């Protein structure tokens, strides 16, 4: 609690003499002080106490009335009055919401219940005294409003396409009807960008909206995007996991660089990383037809019987999903005898766009 004195002396060299003279001639001015809070704050719907007391009254000073007022547009609006002879009076629109805690010649503290946004402002506690006149103290009441926070992902499908540069809306984070305004940020490893909008509502509260945009990519699939809202000491978080659709990325496994004559039970497996998963696989040799000894089952091509030179060639696998078709290929070589030192990396095939 801090004090404010209506009549005070500033500590500057040119006023020192005046202050000394005033203190000598009017000792009551130094003895009479109205103590109030500097600032008070509370949330909508809660109760606050506005402290006000009158200290060191002189024996010959008579207090005739305690009045609370609100400063509005340069005028003073009466809120509550305590008169030792007339009792307590609460004025509209504060009836049923303002009460004196323990009204007396020294204490004018009131309680303001069920705070409303319109209650915010400067309040004046005034003690009317005789014969020294009125003494008052002022305080600032700030009304706070907790925001409503939420996050929502876009309903639009996220599709990664080659050469695409346009950033599209991925998610929106909103902090609505807060006072003061919230701070909205994003926590993610994604390489997108956020835009922010702060709206002052007609009732004095604020709505903060942040929109997160990015270029859909295969790397963004299954990445987490978290919205973080900080308000006063409160922290709100919500997150989504991105579902990015993309065409297949194809690799071919099975050729180990050691297919020799008469080797048995060899096969090539076409694997694809795709969202949604590939639904169709097609095997082909660009420069010929598939050997008659092969059997194709979905994404796997089986070579029945012993290996011969006829199975050598470039094998292409095309994988297709709802987004598109991509191809992978592997060059199969057949040797006369077993190679005991296979190449370092013959497992993964090469990646190519769709081959005609």
From TrEMBL:
Every copy of the Ig-like domain together lies at 27-142, 147-243, 248-335
Note the topology in the membrane.
Single-pass type I membrane protein
One Pfam family linked to the record: V-set
Q: Which residues form the signal peptide?
A: 1-31
Give the classification, highest ranks. Answer: Eukaryota, Metazoa, Chordata, Craniata, Vertebrata
What's this protein's family per the entry? Belongs to the nectin family.
Q: Which GO terms describe its biological process?
A: heterophilic cell-cell adhesion via plasma membrane cell adhesion molecules; homophilic cell adhesion via plasma membrane adhesion molecules; protein localization to cell junction
Q: Where found?
A: Cell junction, Adherens junction; Cell membrane
Descriptive protein name: NECT1 protein
Keyword annotations for this protein?
Cell adhesion, Cell junction, Cell membrane, Disulfide bond, Glycoprotein, Membrane, Repeat, Signal, Transmembrane, Transmembrane helix
Gene for this chain: Nectin1
Q: Which InterPro entries match?
A: CD80_C2-set, Ig-like_dom, Ig-like_dom_sf, Ig-like_fold, Ig_sub, Ig_V-set, Nectin-1_Ig2, Nectin-1_IgV1
For this UniProt entry, the molecular function terms from Gene Ontology, in alphabetical order, are: virus receptor activity
Query: Which Gene3D superfamilies does its entry note?
Result: Immunoglobulins (2.60.40.10)
Domain of life of the organism in this record?
A: Eukaryota
What's a GO cellular component annotated to this UniProt protein?
Answer: adherens junction
């Amino acid at each position: 609690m801090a004090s404010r004195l209506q009549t005070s002396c500033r500590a500057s060299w040119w006023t020192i003499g005046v202050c000394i003279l005033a203190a000598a001639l009017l000792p009551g001015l130094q003895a009479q002080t109205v103590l109030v809070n500097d600032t008070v704050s509370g949330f909508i719907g809660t109760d606050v106490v506005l402290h006000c007391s009158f200290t060191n009254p002189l024996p010959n000073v008579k207090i005739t009335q305690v009045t609370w007022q609100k400063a509005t547009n340069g005028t003073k609006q009466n809120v509550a009055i305590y008169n030792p002879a007339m009792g307590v009076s609460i004025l509209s629109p504060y009836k049923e919401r303002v009460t004196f805690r323990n009204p007396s010649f020294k204490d004018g503290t009131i309680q303001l219940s069920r705070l409303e946004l319109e209650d915010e402002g400067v309040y004046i506690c005034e003690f009317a005294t005789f014969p020294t006149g009125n003494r008052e103290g002022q305080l600032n009441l700030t009304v706070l409003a907790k925001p409503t926070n939420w996050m929502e992902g876009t309903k639009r499908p996220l599709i990664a396409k080659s050469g695409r540069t346009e950033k599209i809306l991925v998610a929106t984070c909103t902090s609505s009807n807060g006072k003061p305004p919230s701070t909205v940020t994003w926590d993610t490893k994604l390489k997108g960008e956020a835009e922010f909008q702060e709206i002052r509502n007609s009732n004095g509260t604020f709505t903060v909206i942040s929109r997160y945009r990015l270029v859909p990519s295969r790397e963004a699939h299954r990445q987490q995007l978290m919205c973080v809202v900080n308000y006063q000491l409160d922290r709100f978080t919500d997150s989504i996991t991105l579902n990015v659709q993309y065409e297949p990325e194809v690799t071919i496994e099975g050729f180990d660089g050691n297919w020799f004559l008469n080797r048995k039970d060899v096969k090539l497996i076409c694997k694809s990383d795709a969202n949604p998963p590939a639904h169709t696989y097609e095997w082909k040799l660009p420069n010929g037809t598939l050997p008659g000894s092969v059997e194709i089952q979905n994404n796997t091509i089986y070579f029945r019987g012993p290996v011969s030179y006829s199975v050598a060639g470039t094998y292409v696998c095309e994988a297709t999903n709802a987004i598109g078709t991509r191809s992978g290929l592997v060059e199969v070589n057949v040797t006369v005898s077993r190679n005991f030192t296979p190449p370092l990396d013959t497992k993964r095939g090469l990646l190519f766009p769709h081959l005609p």
